[in-house]
Specification:
This protein is an alpha/beta fold. It has nine helices and 15 strands. It folds into two domains: 153 residues, Medium-chain alcohol dehydrogenases, catalytic domain (Quinone Oxidoreductase, Chain A, domain 1, Alpha-Beta Complex), CATH 3.90.180.10; 150 residues, NAD(P)-binding Rossmann-like Domain (Rossmann fold). Strand 9, helix 4 and strand 10 form a beta-alpha-beta unit. The longest helix is centred in the C-terminal third of the chain and has 14 residues.
Length: 332
């Protein structure tokens, strides 16, 4: 049997901040699974900041999204039809064919999930790419050592909220986070165990970070004034794990770099950008180390849900305005 379903296409490339007109919802028909394929009914979709970069037609570490074609992203769902013995009907799976209600995929492109350990949605956040990103950034890139001070920008997001908690579990003496509202700051300190946090809208970041200096490891999700402030307040031989730069994702002109790069020389700093797919070898270690902390509640997470495929674009745009606390997800 065929399946009539809907998917979201990239209609045009954004110029600056994306708008709803850059996207188009399209009705399509999927054939029955051929040999070795499965039909998945998606239940939760992931929207992530990195997707903004893929909307530009520029060379990067992943190809840009194609125009007039469905966007891609993490998703979880249930297998409704299967022509694969290895993935039977009813299996809960994870895959990368998000931004759509159904996906027809080769069976080797889906991963079965154990939902007795955690809800399926957690595999898109704390137990998925954001969680592994946090762990890799702290261990392989930031080389965090016990007793050090860690600063995490964008700390109330999917990656930052896990990074701060994992840093504490790995022995950081002090973890400081920045966020964009009083509510998020309170969540960081009262619920997640950050030693300190501040609202970057209240005053300049360089001023608010001063009382927590020197910083040994900076986990950067923001770039811009946060990166400049971190460089100013780093300890000698500090390490900066450059994960994201959301402050400049919508820029239409090249942004100037931090104005204090000379300090990187004076302080003998290490600034290293990283991409989570380069650290797949850490996945087993991540699950073994962080999994039990999540299961016991020692590390916690929050999810912000939008409901329905029609809310996917709004949910994605909300990432740029700080509409999410924790992981932003779309529930179908």
């Amino acid at each position: 049997m065929t399946t009539t379903t809907r998917e979201i296409h990239l209609a045009s490339r954004p110029q600056g901040t994306p708008v709803a007109d850059n996207f188009r919802t399209v009705e399509t028909t999927l054939a029955a699974p051929a040999d070795g394929q499965v039909l998945v009914r998606n239940t939760v979709l992931s929207v992530d900041p990195y997707m903004r970069g893929r909307m530009n037609d520029v060379k990067s570490y992943v190809p840009p999204f194609a125009l007039d074609a469905p966007l891609e992203g993490g998703a979880v769902g249930v297998v409704e039809e299967s022509a694969s013995e290895s993935v039977p009907v009813g299996t809960v799976v994870q895959h990368m064919a998000g931004w759509r209600e159904h996906a027809l995929l080769p069976a080797d492109q889906v991963r079965a999930l154990d939902t007795s350990l955690a809800p399926a949605s957690a595999y898109l956040g704390a137990l998925g790419m954001p969680g592994l990103t946090a762990y890799a950034g702290l261990t392989a890139v930031g080389r965090l050592r016990e007793g050090e001070t860690v600063f995490v920008s964008g700390a109330a997001g999917a990656v930052g909220s896990i990074a701060g908690q994992v840093a504490k579990k790995l022995g950081a003496a002090k973890v400081v986070g920045s966020a964009g509202s009083a509510e998020k700051v309170t969540w960081l300190t009262d619920d997640l165990g950050f030693d300190a946090a501040f609202n970057y809208r209240d005053a300049k970041v360089v001023k608010q970070l001063a009382e927590h200096a020197p910083v040994d490891v900076y986990f950067d999700n923001v770039g811009g004034d946060h990166l400049e402030a971190a460089i100013f307040h780093m300890a000698d031989f500090g390490r900066l794990a450059l994960c994201g730069a959301i402050a400049g994702y919508d820029a239409t002109e090249p942004l100037p770099g931090p104005r204090n790069m000379m300090m990187a020389i004076q302080k003998r700093l290490t600034l290293r950008g990283f991409i989570v797919t380069d650290h797949g070898d850490l996945a087993g270690e991540f699950y073994k180390t962080v999994g039990p902390w999540l299961a016991s509640g020692e590390v916690t997470y929050r999810e912000t849900f939008a409901d329905g495929l029609d809310q996917t674009v709004e949910a994605f745009l909300g990432l740029g305005t700080g509409a999410n606390v924790g992981k932003m997800l779309v529930r179908l």
